[in-house]
Amino acid sequence: MRWNASTAICSGFPSLIGVRRSASSWSFCRAALRTTTRSCLPPASPANIPPNTVNPIFGPVINQISFWVDGLDELRLLHRKLMAASVKPITPINHGIAWSLYFPDAEGNNLECFVDTPWYMRQPCAEPLDMSMDDETLLKITHDLCRRSRGYRPYADWRAEIAAQMAARAAGVRIG
Asked: If we measure between CA atoms, which residue out of 105, 104, 84 comes closest to residue 34?
């Protein structure tokens, strides 16, 4: 399923996976994304789960919920909407394999919206991402980052390699 900036957070998925709905989630989606869809309800943490004291930026149960968005224009649109709604912190990151925005929902759950790049490189990689860059500059900077990294190759080549390894394992062939 493809989601755009308006539906990346405000979709029917919370009811699909059976999470609690809350007024604060609805207010966030209505303010940040200007949606009128009442099914916009990010997940919430149960009250009895203790906070994550090792890394408080991450939630007590999960690290984040990630959403693929349809291109840099959608990611930039979401960034503008989050800024206009005074959501903080918003952390744009260039992973080489993806451009991401990290931000909390109204209940403190970490969300990531991302766009894939055409390249693969080993992770982790987290370089600052300037959302004001034009596409051509961002593509050049990201391609240069990937080319300097271990494991660099076009994403399609990496996917084909992984698919072949999975097929071999399914056939009982021992790899490596």
From this structure: 84
Pick 13-170's CATH classification: 3.60.10, 3.30.110, 3.10.180, 2.30.31: 3.10.180
CA distance 105 to 108: 5
This prediction's pTM: 0.68
End-to-end Cα distance, the chain: 34
Residue written as tokens 């034009």?
Answer: 134
The 3-state secondary structure of the chain reads CCECCCCCCCCCHHHHHCCCCCHHHHHHHHHHHCCCCCCCCCCCCCCCCCCCCCCCCCCCCCCCEEEEECCHHHHHHHHHHHHHCCCCCCEEEECCCEEEEEEECCCCCEEEEEEECCEECCCCCCEECCCCCCHHHHHHHHHHHHHCCCCCEEHHHHHHHHHHHHHHHHCCCCCC
Residue 108 near residue 101 (C-beta atoms within 8 A): no
Report how far residue 114's alpha carbon sits from residue 74's, in angstroms, rounded to the nearest whole number: 10
- State pLDDT tens for residues 55-90: 666 666 677 889 999 999 999 999 999 999 899 999
Packed helices 23-33 and 72-84: angle between N→C axes, nearest 10 degrees: 120
